[in-house]
Amino acid sequence: MLRLLHHLILPAMALSFCATSAFAEEEATFWRLFVADHAKPLVTAIDLGTDQVSGSFELGSPASLYTTPSKAAVYAVQGEADRVSAIASGIALGDHGDHADLEVSAPKLLDANVTGDKPVHFVEHHGDIALFFDGEGVARLLSEKDWLGGDAATRDLKVAAPHHGVAAPLGQYTLISRPSAEDPKALPVGIDVYGADGTTIGDLHACPDLHGEASSGDTLAIACAAGLLLVKAAKDGPELQLLPYSTSLPEGKSTTLLGGVAMQYWLGNYGADRVAIIDPSAAEPFRLVDLPSRRVHFAIDPQRVKYAYVFTEDGALHRLDVVSGAIDKTLQLTEPYSMDREWSLPRPRLAVAGDHIAVTDPLAGAIHLVDAESFTLARDIAVAGAPYNIVAVGGSGATHE
User: Fold this and answer.
1) What is the pTM of this model?
2) Which domains does the chain have, with CATH numbers?
3) Does residue 37 surpass a pLDDT of 70?
């Protein structure tokens, strides 16, 4: 069975208030979308509820967007501009044990950037950030707290050769991909563990064709040709163990992973028209789900934790029950977006914002908001240009007068 994780799951609605006048405070929920344009170096912040633009930020090039559990910022990885920028989300959720406080302000592009040749992967773990620069073969490490405080100085770890790699912080240790000695342009061959002094510890952990990583609960999963390399923190350093693909599976592998929230599992691609639900505790850890057409993008729901969403090239959004392993609802949402031709063409992307699933529609210049409970289209938000990559930041908490 999928293992339950004891995480706080913030309830989410579009924008609602419940008075608690005895304490001169109100309970509020607020969500903000950050949307990157496909062609222009621009990120737009949109406040759900009013659906108005609360910020527009010019960057060096079109960006991939990431956020972290702190919800304090959105990070824009600009591969063509050789830098990573931080945009303060304007949403602060303070944990007070029995409740959280919510403060909302305007988003802001911060001055401090991390620069280098061709940044690609962004990984955060417990407040530590690792950025991997493919053009240099360098991992740059820093704390989120320092960055948001204006200090983007990094500790750098350089590997044998530039390659399409990844680094992941794990306490005082850092996991970094190792390039192929024969052909650094090929996918990495495994993972090295680096100590606090920057030297490697132990032998290479083999992971041929390494591509894709995600955390769920206390475990980091890294996708390999033969299965998932599972990583856990331990007293004497990280423990790494391969979860192999079953011999009964059809040919294929996962190269993109998402980690479950509150239930420990991973959702991955597996060929063009399947996804894999991966549960290491199950008798059969890999369950494949056939899709009606080729997959464009997918996302997990951190609030309705048994659900994930998959958008397919026929323009349909599907709700996947990860417990039963079945698609239980489908909504026709856009015109078809063929997966033929280049991978980088503008196609829809998903983000879960409380009670809504936000789906970008770059060719229509819109974001479709789907009600997560009824799985019907709630409304559309017009966005200039070609809205593409998207993240949602928000949550619930007490607001004090």
Assistant:
1) 0.93
2) 3-400 (2.130.10.10)
3) yes
